């Protein structure tokens, strides 16, 4: 490296210039510390990204039922919509919503609207 003040060639481990006495701010040790800081920043960033991905999965990938219900009252449920991708399905007898079970008593008029994959709907 060179002395920033007088421009004399100095060894990389020099702490001050032997020519003009200028105190060198960048030493070999400080360079290493800088590299370690960069590494820990990258590691912290990686952790942050992992955390964000984990939160994303926890929030948006809650196991979803293929069935959508409406009018859940008095232990009875009306199927409003089918969201699954199966070709052949069987209408469930009961559905679980949270901690409670409901008997399926009705299927909405447009419950299977847009289900182009659906080839058969079985009876329970
Ligand atoms: Zn110098």
Structural features, described:
This protein is an alpha/beta fold and 124 residues long. It has 2 domains: 1-61; 67-122, no CATH class. It is built from 1 helix and 6 strands. The protein has one helix at residues 28-60, and strands at 67-73, 76-82, 88-90, 94-97, 100-107, 120-122. It has a 4-stranded mixed beta sheet, with no helix packed on it. Strand 1 and strand 2 (76-82) form a beta hairpin. The longest helix has 33 residues, at 28-60. The N and C termini lie far apart (83 Å). The mean pLDDT is 79. Bound molecules: zinc ion (ZN). The site of zinc ion (ZN) has 8 residues, from loops.
Annotation keywords:
single chain; alpha/beta; four-stranded mixed β-sheet; rod-shaped; binds zinc ion
Overall 3D geometry? rod-shaped
**Number of DSSP helices?**
1
What fraction, in percent, of the residue positions are helical? 25-40%
- Hetero groups bound? zinc ion
Please mark out the parts with pLDDT under 50 across 5 or more consecutive residues, or reply none: none
Main sheet overview: 4 strands, mixed
Tell me the radius of gyration. Answer: 34 Å
Average of the residue pLDDT scores: 79
| Helical/strand content category | alpha/beta
Q: For the record, give the distance between the C-alpha atoms at the N and C termini, rounded to a whole number.
A: 83 Å
- The ordered string of helix (H) and strand (E) elements is HEEEEEE
Sequence-ordered SSE layout with sheet pairings:
Elements: H1 28-60, E1 67-73, E2 76-82, E3 88-90, E4 94-97, E5 100-107, E6 120-122
Parallel strand pairs: 2-5, 3-6
Antiparallel strand pairs: 1-2, 4-5
Bound molecules: zinc ion.
């Amino acid at each position: 490296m060179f002395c920033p003040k007088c421009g004399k060639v100095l060894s990389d481990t020099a702490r001050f210039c032997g020519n003009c006495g200028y105190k060198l701010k960048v030493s070999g040790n400080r360079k290493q510390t800088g590299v370690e800081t960069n590494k820990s920043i990258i590691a912290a960033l990686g952790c942050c990204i992992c955390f964000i991905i984990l939160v994303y999965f926890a929030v948006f990938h809650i196991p979803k039922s293929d069935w959508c219900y409406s009018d859940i009252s008095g232990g009875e449920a009306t199927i409003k919509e089918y969201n699954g991708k199966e070709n052949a399905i069987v209408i469930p007898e009961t559905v679980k919503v949270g901690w409670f079970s409901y008997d399926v008593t009705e299927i909405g008029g447009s419950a299977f609207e847009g289900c182009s994959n659906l080839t058969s709907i079985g009876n329970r």
